[in-house]
Amino acid sequence: MYSVSKIENNYDHSLKIILSGDSGSGKTSILSRYFEDIYSDEFPITYTQDQKEKTIILEDKKIKLNVCDTAGQERFRMICHSPYRGVQGIVIVFDLTDFNSFDNVKRWYCEGERYASEGTPVIIVGNKIDLVDLKKNDQVVSNEVIKELADSLGAPYIETSAKYNINVEKLFLNIVQNILYYKGYISTVSPSKPIILKKEPKDKSCIIN
Ligand code: GTP
Description:
This protein has helices at 27-36, 99-103, 105-115, 143-153, 168-182, 202-205; strands at residues 13-21, 49-58, 61-70, 89-95, 122-127, 157-160. It has 209 residues and is of the alpha/beta class. It has a single domain, classed as 3-Layer(aba) Sandwich (Rossmann fold), CATH 3.40.50. A six-stranded mixed beta sheet has the order 2-3-1-4-5-6, sandwiched between helices. The longest helix has 15 residues, at 168-182. 39% of the residues are buried. The chain binds guanosine-5'-triphosphate. InterPro entries: P-loop_NTPase, Small_GTP-bd, Small_GTPase, Small_GTPase_Rab. Belongs to the small GTPase superfamily. Rab family. One of its GO terms (molecular function) is GTPase activity. Pfam families: Ras (PF00071).
């Protein structure tokens, strides 16, 4: 079902996605890899927010994608709902080599739950997979624990490397598909099941320490 057609703007859907997560988790790197195919070991810290836009084609439909990169550092973050205004998908990034960034995923989820519209699809991203030597079993958080969290939030989980361009495209494809699925424009999502920000009572799901 593709009833909404923005013929005048020459696209079928216009989607806004937000990247959230701790400072240093790799949000800017993921954004730059996806939009410009650029990676640097020294991206400056995001002080406010940055937006990038491009048009992608999915199932013969033209989609205008606007992705907003937010500041991970608390002191640069205005905790208000403005970055979340009109957001249709949330990407929460953590650093696979930094336990604190994983520990804060719930916190970012709660921020999204508070400011985004009910039912906004979310995806959890473990970035910097290139730094994890699976043979040495040196992950700071086990796959079981990550899966447990993702399941409890009802969100799919994907591992990426912005540095080596692993799964970055797939991540955006997945969130776009989930948004379109949620809106009823497509009937299947691959590879993950559709995910929905659960609206549990705030006191149960969103205790921010
Ligand atoms: P804030 O702007 O403070 O919110 O940080 P951020 O989440 O945007 O992180 P950023 O993209 O600036 O990356 C932080 C550091 O991690 C930089 O030195 C990057 O080069 C590095 N980095 C990002 N992604 C990867 C990755 O996939 N692998 C490796 N090895 N390093 C990465």
